[in-house]
Amino acid sequence: MNWQTNPYALALIVSALVSITIAIYAWRRRPATATTAVALLLLAAAEWSLAYALELGAVRLETKTFWARAQYPGIVATAPLVLLVVVKYLGRDRWLTRRNLALLASVPIATLALLLTNDLHGLIWEDTRLVASGSYQMLVIEHGSFFWVLVLYSYVCLGLAALLLAVIYV
Questions:
Q1: What pTM, to 2 d.p., does this model score?
Q2: What dihedral angle (degrees, nearest 10) is formed by the CA atoms of 74, 80, 81, 85?
Q3: Whole-angstrom Cα distance, residue 63 to residue 19?
Q4: Strand ranges (DSSP E) for 34-135?
């Protein structure tokens, strides 16, 4: 058997479909403020959700690891896109210089590059293994040091987005 039915996978698939539907809706209203950034954010979230659903449904370690890696484009894009949505929504487009956008993209790009070469250095994942959880086989990942750089970067992006909104609305 190469597939395990998992109720969480169904919820993730539904979430991905809803995100894609709303992304299409936002994309069609592109002249409106921040709609392109919102559409990209929703597509990143959908990609992450769908790949995670496929990871949960997979049985073999190699297949689960493949789908866990496939989640990373959505994972690395989500937090900076939230910040981008907020900046666009607040009309601070002048902050979006090439330099600032390059800085915003640097950690996600570095993370994806390190993920592709992870077998050489273990900076994203040090170890992966399967653990039985009830009748399911779950992927357990021991994260490497650069993973925590991504976590910190993501929290900084989300914190800045929240701070910008708080300054405007509080």
A1: 0.93
A2: 160
A3: 25
A4: 125-133
